[in-house]
Amino acid sequence: MNPTDLDHVLTVLGAAAWSTDEQSRADAAGTLALTVYDGHTRDQGTPYLEHPLAVVTLLRTEIRVIHPETLILALLHDALEVAPESEALLVQHLGAPFTARLRAMTADHRLEQRPKAAGDETNWRFKQAALPPEDLLVRLADRLHNLRDLAVSPNLARRRRFLQSLEDFYLPLADATCGLSPHLAAMHALLHAEHVQHQQEVGP
User: Fold this and answer.
1) Quick one: which of 164, 158, 191, 198 has its CA closest to 176?
2) What stretch of H or E contains 93?
C-alpha cells in the first residue's frame, strides 16, 4: 500500500458520504495529514501515514464509527507527536478547539520536544484518563492498532514494554469506561481479545 494521495485518504475516511461542509473539512484534514506525516516512518520502517489510516479504518469497519469529526481526529491523532511544529498550521486550517483535542492526546515531552523525564508517564496517564469518550475511543483504537502491529516490530523489548503498559493502564481504563458508549464497549472487547493473543505470541 502506498497511501500518498488525497483521494486515497478521503476514501479511507469515507468522506464521499459526508455533507459538503464536512467534505471541505476532510479535504483540509487529508492535506494536513499528507504534509505532517510526510517523511516520518514507524519503527518497522513503514510510512507513518499508514498507521493513522489503519486507525480510521478500524474505527469505521470494526467499531462502526460514522461521526466525521471523530474520524478526522483519528487521522491526525499523532500529528503533534511526530511534528509538534505543525500546531499553528493545524489551528489555521482546523481550528483551535480541534487542535486542543490533539494536544490533550499528545505526551507533554513530545509537545515540548524534549527527552522523557520523571513524572511524564504519570502526567500522560492523567491526561488520557481525562479524555472525553470520543477522544478516548480514538486513543484506544490507536493502542489496538499498535497491538496488532507488534508482530512486525523488530524491537522485542519495546513489544514487552507495550504489553506491560497495556496491562497496567489501558486495559483497566477500557474496563472503567466501557459503559460510556456502545463504541467504547466494542473497543473494550476487541482490546481484551487481541491482548490475549499477542501476550501468547510475545511470551514471558
Assistant:
1) 191
2) helix 87-94
Average pLDDT score over residue span 120-137: 95
Q: How many CB atoms lie within 10 A of CB 76?
A: 25
Please give the model's pTM, rounded to 2 decimal places. 0.93
Cell of 1: 500500500
Provide the β-strand partners of residue 47.
41
Please give the Cα distance from 166 to 185 (Å, whole number): 17
* Helix, strand, coil percent values for the chain (each to nearest 5): 75, 0, 25
CB 106 within 8 A of CB 81: yes
- Separation CA 2–CA 23 (nearest Å): 22
CA 127 vs CA 47, 116, 124, 153: distances in Å: 27, 15, 5, 27
Pair 177, 183: CB distance under 8 Å: no
> Is the per-residue pLDDT at 44 higher than 80?
no
pLDDT band with cut points at 50, 70 and 90 for residue 108: very high
* C-alpha distances in Å from residue 62, one per residue of 43, 54, 55, 167: 25, 11, 10, 22
Cβ atoms 156, 177 nearer than 8 A: no
Contact 162, 198 (CB under 8 A): no
CA distance 159 to 169: 15
Query: First vs last Cα of the chain: how many Å apart?
Result: 33
